[in-house]
From TrEMBL:
It comes from the Bacteria. Keywords: Repeat. Pfam families: DJ-1_PfpI. The gene is yajL. This is Chaperone protein YajL.
Length: 184
């Protein structure tokens, strides 16, 4: 079974986190949510309480087909400040696995060195082109560049999740999930 790890940091963007979890599970992808702290419950950016499946400490050495980082603030700063996230992102990517980040979370990938030379989409102003000249910035809702998928923000979360399904599974599975969501 295809597995995706979604770390949940205090202050993450709940719309992105919940959309990713829900839509990926509709595709029968095994989604594991992991809190950065020893407590499984976190409070998201708008005060919504989320309960992770486990803690990051319990799954840090496990293998996943993909790691996806929800954005939001201060959630992204909390992800970026946790050295385990940087180690995990690098380990999984170097192992040939997919990495995804939405909204402000591509900043974590940039700081981990994964975005150099890549086309990237992120929340406006999170990564400034003059400060990151090695990145190719895009205003596209979702960008896929060599096993790294990035997206702009809460309004693009559904498209982001569907692209993940297409890349991890196939276009048929994506179409089936998309039809069930009645997007069009």
């Amino acid at each position: 079974m295809t597995t995706v790890l979604i770390p949940l940091a205090e202050g993450c963007e709940e719309l992105e986190a919940v959309t990713l979890i829900d839509v990926l599970r509709r595709a029968e992808i095994q989604v594991v949510t992991a809190s950065l702290s020893e407590h499984q419950q976190i409070t998201a950016s708008r005060g919504v309480r989320l309960v992770a499946d486990t803690t990051l400490a319990q799954v840090i050495d496990d293998e996943f087909d993909m790691l996806v980082l929800p954005g939001g603030q201060p959630g992204t700063n909390n992800l970026d400040a946790d050295p385990r996230i940087h180690v995990l992102v690098k380990r999984l990517y170097q192992g040939g696995n997919w990495i995804g980040a939405i909204c402000a979370a591509p900043m974590v990938l940039a700081h981990a060195g994964l975005l150099d030379g890549r086309k990237v989409s992120c929340y406006p102003g999170v990564l400034e082109p003059k400060e990151w000249p090695e990145l190719q910035f895009s205003n596209d809702a979702v960008v896929c560049d060599n096993k790294v998928i990035t997206s702009r923000g809460p309004g693009t979360a559904m498209a982001f999740a569907l692209m993940i399904i297409e890349k991890l599974m196939d276009e048929t599975t994506r179409s089936k999930v998309e039809a069930g969501l009645v997007i069009r």
